[in-house]
Amino acid sequence: PIKLLMSWLLSPVCELSHIFVLCVPPDLREIVFVIQSQSNTFHVRQAERRREDLLKQARDISSDLSHSFGKNSSWIVFLEEETNVKLIALIKVLAKVDKNKEWFLGKPLFDEESTIIHHYAFAENPSIFKYPDFAASWALSIPLVVRLAKKVKEEPLKSDFTIDLKHEVALYIWDNGKGPHLTAVPELCTVPEDSPQASHCATTVSKKPPLCGEPVNKEDIFVAVKTCKKFHSERVPVIKKTWEKDALFLEYYSDHADPSIPTINLGVPNTERGHCGKTFAILQRFLSSAVPDTKWLLIVDDDTLISIPRLQVLLSCYDSSEPVSLGERYGYGLSQGGYSYITGGGGMVFSREAVVRLLKSGCKCYSNDAPDDMVLGMCLNALGLPVTHSPLFHQARPEDYARDFLAHQVPISFHKHWNIDPIAVFNKWLKNDFTASQDELKSGKTEL
């Protein structure tokens, strides 16, 4: 039964590549740690480091401790690559809970207002529903796993869009009140590991995003902005007042050539939705001699707010010679053999190799107004190429995410100008020059 449930929890939207049981000391064998990782080289390496750290701690635990706390250790514990675990402290936390009952443990997040990313769930009072912050880790007792596995077997999952897995997992477990709510565990934390507040914590987060070397040069990134005539005077000025100066190579693509911006007409008529035709014209132009030969392509909407310096730091962790597709990953029909895709509003990043393989495959739009991000996802899936998720890209506005979720991030992008002052949002969440970005990342702090 556990395997049945795990086949769902470890769906392609997670791309969990490491599941292992700590076998030392013997009484810890029933704690199964699942490291949520991805198939990209960088993420596999990060997950292996986390795995080795856990195994080392397990080997160092004395038999006395295992005898004292091992009796209550029938758990599946999920954690992310950047989740630091103090194994002894976690064992003590789990020992306080009756393993024979159904438990769903974690650090709770909640929505302060109903949001599109959660399909406006609990619209009358969204704060009543709690869901886990994956960065703090979360745990399921085996009795709960067994019941949910039985449910999955009897009622095959039918899903369309997977947008925010942590919220959707909590909804599934809650099961319209038939299952347990998330139980808050104060020892599951997202404060930095060297913070004074971390003294009581069994889990913490790394105090800074991974620094994989020098940030990627501006010369290596080409930025394509999708716009249209009706937004030339409304949205383009926001980009020019905020992040345009940080991009060395940037072009605006529109249905109308306006030399004052300037914009480029790719010969694709504007569509109210989808924009697949325009996006594929951008991919073709990226590989042509019309633009500088760069390693990375960033495609954004004209209402995307993004930090280019932070993107430069993040891209240092990826190999541009690999077919990398990076951004905020959504899923479509994953339980029925569907596919993952990079949602366009938060920004889609492609290595040159990824673009070469996409176009060489013959992948194309079935119509100009087809959803470009989903068509690209279908093509990448058909080619067997991974879609890499980063939680630092955001399809929605800051207020559409739980405050505690953003508090331990150094975000790269947000999307939409609706009901906000986009320049103020950029200045609050994303503004920093190249030097400040490195200092900020090294200190693990962001301006909130």
Automatic annotation (TrEMBL):
Keyword line: Glycosyltransferase, Membrane, Signal, Signal-anchor, Transferase, Transmembrane, Transmembrane helix
GO molecular function, one term: glycosyltransferase activity
Annotated InterPro entries: Fringe-like_glycosylTrfase
Gene Ontology CC terms, in alphabetical order: endomembrane system; membrane
Membrane topology: Single-pass membrane protein; Single-pass type II membrane protein
Compartment(s) of residence: Endomembrane system; Membrane
Broad class of where this protein is predominantly found: membrane
Keyword Transferase tagged: yes
Protein name: Fringe-like glycosyltransferase domain-containing protein
